[in-house]
Write a structure and sequence with these properties.
alpha/beta, TIM Barrel, 11 helices, 335 residues
Length: 335
């Protein structure tokens, strides 16, 4: 038992070796750029939780290879706090290590996402799976940033998935309070890893970035997050997207780390994701006009809105749409 504990401690202390296949990314103005200063637009998919995928036997090369075959150049790992605790830190980090290695082998950048939904200020959350604390969140980013420092495959740290007061039911959450908490996390991350790009979301389930107009995060080299699901606003969408978060792309890099759509009669259909390809076409065109990076939710047949319907990777309606767009826009289409 003592030898196992010592081995776990050593694994936690060791950084993951950097992969050389992908150039390191950084922020210049409102752009994400590579080492040569060329603009990089990231377009890809958000996975489901690595803990879920591994328990079902799908945290493997086929899964990553399929994401790459669909045209992705970035993938997102949503790490739920409850899964992090239940699997245990050492075991969960081993999962992430394996995923980072597979991503590098397939030319995919990685977003590591602390996948909580709720109010970090009051420490009240939308469901048990998202339950965390300010202390646990800080410890998570201290551990992760030390482990993946210098690994260019791990290009982004999404500090908190979806901040929300849930219409006051989770307590007050003003933008300046969210900003200050994220600045604390950025300080912790940068002490270990000055190069990886922190991603900061705004309130209203990562939709509202209007606080940036007068009070941006007091840190350089970061990017901001939008989750522009179709039912967040009524059509016409474009003026409302521009007002709430699109305007920020003139000044800062934006990464839309979740978006997606499905039919109302599909499995698990729920507000705010019910729509059709009209939404898909509108949101992708909006991103392209502003140089916004994105990852579609979700590369899984059970969580919704699903991108494929079974483990043969049969694409759903939105899966077909985003697969074709990824191949076209990332230059992997045969057409």
């Amino acid at each position: 038992m003592h030898r196992l504990l010592l081995l776990a401690a050593l694994l936690l202390a060791l950084p993951v070796a950097a992969q050389e296949a992908l150039p390191a990314l950084h922020v210049e103005g409102n752009r994400i750029v590579d080492e040569a200063g060329a603009t990089v637009i990231l377009r890809g998919v958000s996975f489901s939780d690595p803990d879920k995928l591994e328990s079902q036997g799908h945290w493997d090369d086929e899964y990553f290879a399929t994401a790459a075959d669909w045209g992705a150049n970035v993938v997102r790992f949503p790490i739920h706090p409850r899964a992090w605790r239940e699997r245990g830190e050492a075991a969960y980090l081993a999962l992430v290590d394996a995923g980072v290695e597979l991503a590098a082998e397939h030319g995919l950048y990685v977003i590591l996402d602390w996948h909580s939904i709720g109010n970090l200020r009051t420490e009240v959350f939308q469901a048990d799976m998202y339950q965390t604390s300010k202390a646990e969140t800080a410890r998570f980013w201290r551990t992760v940033s030390a482990r993946y420092a210098g690994n260019p495959t791990v290009a982004f740290y999404e500090l908190f998935n979806e901040p929300t007061s849930y219409r006051g039911t989770l307590g007050r959450l003003a933008w300046h309070e969210q900003r200050e908490m994220m600045e604390d996390l950025i300080t912790i991350v940068r002490a270990n890893d000055p190069d990886t790009i922190p991603l900061v979301a705004g309130p209203d389930w990562a939709y509202d970035l209007t606080g940036l107009r007068e009070d941006p995060v007091r840190a350089e080299g970061i990017a901001y997050v939008a989750h522009p699901y179709p039912q967040k606003r009524e059509q016409p969408w474009e003026p409302k997207w521009e007002e709430a978060w699109g305007f920020a792309a003139e000044t800062y890099p934006i990464v839309a780390t979740e978006l997606g759509f499905m039919n109302a009669d599909g499995p698990g259909a729920h507000v705010p994701v019910i729509a059709d390809e009209t939404y898909g076409r509108a949101i992708v065109d909006f991103f392209e006009a502003r140089g916004i990076s994105w990852t579609a939710w979700v590369f899984d047949p059970e969580w919704s809105p699903q991108m494929f319907s079974d483990w043969d990777f049969t694409p759903t309606m939105q899966g077909t749409f985003f697969r074709d767009e990824l191949r076209r826009l990332n230059g992997t289409s045969d057409e």
